[in-house]
Amino acid sequence: MSHATGFGYTTRLWPVEQLDPAPLTVLLADTQPSVRHGVRAALEQAGGVFVVGEAATANGVIAETARHRPDVLVVDPQLGGAGPADVIGRVALVSPETKVLVLSAADDDTAVRSAIHAGARGYLVKGADAEQIVRGVRVVAAGEAIVGRAIAARFSALVRTSAPEPYPFPQLTTRERQVLDRIAAGRSNAVIARDLGLASKTISNRVSAVFAKLGVADRAQAIVLARDAGLGRGEFTGDREQFPYRGETGRT
């Protein structure tokens, strides 16, 4: 079931059972053991989701992410005073393929925008029920984006009133922008080649050209630079292609 918001997004209200049931690996990060235990119980009860580890500090998140390279990280990015850009950005460096779902008590626009800009693929507010959390994990693992309904309503208004921002790297060609957008989203060269319908060698050459024009030495540096500029947020600004968007139901 779906309905159009009128701002270029479609809000889909699908039950968890209709999402991809493939087994997923998940890492949990929160300063509160009770939160980690509650989320673990919800995910393990759902089936097809394996919690591979837990962390309570920013450094712990990075170490456990590097160790397990989970499909999804469920995290409250306010860990020991660290901000979303620090935690989520460092996760992208050690495991670019890991998708980040924020589960936080903060629901103000600044907190949400900061997390999304840092690279989070989803944002739920603590108090979300077990079904919402399971759905959120499966949605972001599938490469899509999800936020709570109340947050989605505010973002729809923001989309309606905000003028499009210019692409942050004007020195890149259109194709190079498409490649960089996908690098920032954590996609491998093979996946980018499939997305754009190009040969792997062609993508490899494009990636090298992007690195040279940006003045970076490797993929990790390119991801940090691109995400600092607002890329990798679940939409491809280089070609105006957006990931499917899912609105959440229930409490937010």
Topology:
Layout: E1 2-4, E2 10-12, E3 24-29, H1 33-46, E4 49-55, H2 58-68, E5 72-75, H3 84-94, E6 99-104, H4 109-118, E7 122-125, H5 130-141, E8 145-147, H6 149-161, H7 174-184, H8 189-196, H9 200-214, H10 219-228, E9 235-236, E10 241-242, E11 245-247
Parallel strand pairs: 3-4, 3-5, 5-6, 6-7, 7-8, 8-11
Antiparallel strand pairs: 1-2, 9-10
Task: Describe the protein.
The chain has about 250 residues and is α/β, with parallel strands linked by helices. α3 (about 85-95) runs parallel beside α4 and α7 (about 175-185) packs across α10 (about 220-230). β6 (about 100-105), α4 and β7 form a beta-alpha-beta unit. It is about 45% helix and about 15% strand. The chain has helices at about 35-45, 60-70, 85-95, 110-120, 130-140, 150-160, 175-185, 190-195, 200-215, 220-230; strands spanning about 1-5, 10, 25-30, 50-55, 70-75, 100-105, 120-125, 145, 235, 240, 245. The relative contact order is 0.15. The chain has 2 domains: about 1-160, Response regulator (Rossmann fold); about 175-230, Winged helix-like DNA-binding domain superfamily/Winged helix DNA-binding domain (Arc Repressor Mutant, subunit A, Orthogonal Bundle), CATH 1.10.10.10. Residues about 1-20 and about 235-250 have low confidence and may be disordered.
